[in-house]
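User: Can you predict the 3D structure for this chain?
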Amino acid sequence: MVVTASGVFRRTAVERADQRVSWERGDQAFFSSGACHVLAWTCRDFYPEQEIALAALYLGDFEHPLHVYARWGTWAFDASGWNPEAELLKVNSDFEGRPVREVETITSDLREFCEKHVHRQPHQYWADPTERARAYVGRYDPPWG
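Assistant: Here is the predicted structure, written as structure tokens:
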């Protein structure tokens, strides 16, 4: 799959206001914008034998992340599947028209991250997206073979 900037799938005002409308988007759109953090945590949990880290992209002076993804070595996993992390950073910078600010490694758990960055926890969605995220992660072959 080709790396696509998360901003391509930004939620509309209706999708932000109505969780069911947001939920009904296709998987790539849903996990690119609105549930990327759930997908990242699910990816890490899906491969407990691997040292998968979680990372957040920031844009400009924004206090909260633009996008969250899983990282393994030089590889990144998000709604575009597994791709070189450098490509993920480039497409997001190009789409936004400016460089993404430093990538931050996330060390908190999902609940703490959501509270700090005003993101929904899985139980706060129209339906819990965890199983949907597990199925999505399972579609992609990991880079370690």
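Residues 6-138 form one domain. The mean pLDDT is 90.
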